[in-house]
Amino acid sequence: MTASTKLKVSEKSQLDAEAITAYLHEALVPLRLAVVGSDGCPLVASHWFEFRHQKIYCVLHEDALVAKRLQATGCCGFEVAHESMPYRGVRGQADVALLDGDAVAQLRQLFARYGIREQSKLAQWLLGRGDEERLVCLTPRWITGWDYSQRMSDAR
Fold first, then answer.
1. Is 145 in contact with 23 (CB distance < 8 Å)?
2. Residue ranges per domain, the chain?
3. Domain 9-146, CATH 2.30.110.10 — does that match?
4. How far apart are CA 119 and CA 64, in angstroms?
5. pTM score, whole prediction
6. Which of 65, 72, 60 is closest to 99 using CA atoms?
């Protein structure tokens, strides 16, 4: 990994870059994207994601409000975290690029990652509008991670 592609891990992060990278590769929970709405209030939406080359990729419909806000602002907040004990996850802020092309290929990778059968109604519906989907690339500005497994080992 070159210096230009190294994750910028917060000084206060409980997890280092290697642990954060491992977590993002293994976590099969949705990515939560946070953007500022046109009214100034936050908007949060969940999406399947893939982490590769120190970037986070997902797919959004071009008419989705989140896609429009990402296009307008060029940045977002994000979180990938489990909702049950022991709590662990990562969060940060990222610069965003909405790219033409490769959205269908990315959708297929996401189906495989999340165990979605490509023949399912959901997959066929998403693929059927593939020319309206946009590949979204998040380049983290900073990232932090936590894992409360040790602290919560006897909580239940």
1. yes
2. 9-146
3. yes
4. 24
5. 0.90
6. 60
